[in-house]
């Protein structure tokens, strides 16, 4: 269950990064509020995860999910363009996330 909470925390990290972009520098109240709600949910779930998982495991998983999620959102919603070499490094991020999970013993 703690891993599910950590994954959801990472997803909320992607959500707050996305809504922050849509808030246009916190000038749009609805997206600004959504950003703060998603940030709060993300941090609370990360905090819960670190009660059970070591910080050295929970934090990189959380940031990795947020990073990969934000990359995908950027490409899909904001039409960001990434080079093939960048996609290789995104793949490395995914391998790192999965590798950390598989080798923790938690």
Automatic annotation (TrEMBL):
InterPro entries: EmrE-like (IPR037185), Small_drug/metabolite_transptr (IPR000390), Small_multidrug_res (IPR045324)
Top-level taxon of the source organism: Bacteria
Transmembrane intervals: 30-47, 59-78, 84-103
Record membrane topology: Multi-pass membrane protein
SUPFAM superfamilies recorded: Multidrug resistance efflux transporter EmrE
Protein name, as recorded: Quaternary ammonium compound-resistance protein SugE
Keyword entries, A-Z: Cell membrane, Membrane, Transmembrane, Transmembrane helix, Transport
GO cellular component assignments: plasma membrane
Organism of derivation: Pediococcus damnosus
Pfam families tied to this protein: Multi_Drug_Res
Localization per Swiss-Prot or TrEMBL: Cell membrane
């Amino acid at each position: 269950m703690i891993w599910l909470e950590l994954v959801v925390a990472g997803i909320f990290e992607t959500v707050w990064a996305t809504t922050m972009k849509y808030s246009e520098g916190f000038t749009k109240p609805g997206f600004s509020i959504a950003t703060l709600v998603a940030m709060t949910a993300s941090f609370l779930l990360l905090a819960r995860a670190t009660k059970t998982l070591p910080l050295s495991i929970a934090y990189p998983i959380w940031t990795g999910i947020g990073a990969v999620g934000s990359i995908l959102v950027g490409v899909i919603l904001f039409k960001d363009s990434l080079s093939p070499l960048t996609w290789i490094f995104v793949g490395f991020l995914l391998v790192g996330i999965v590798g950390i999970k598989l080798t923790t013993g938690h």
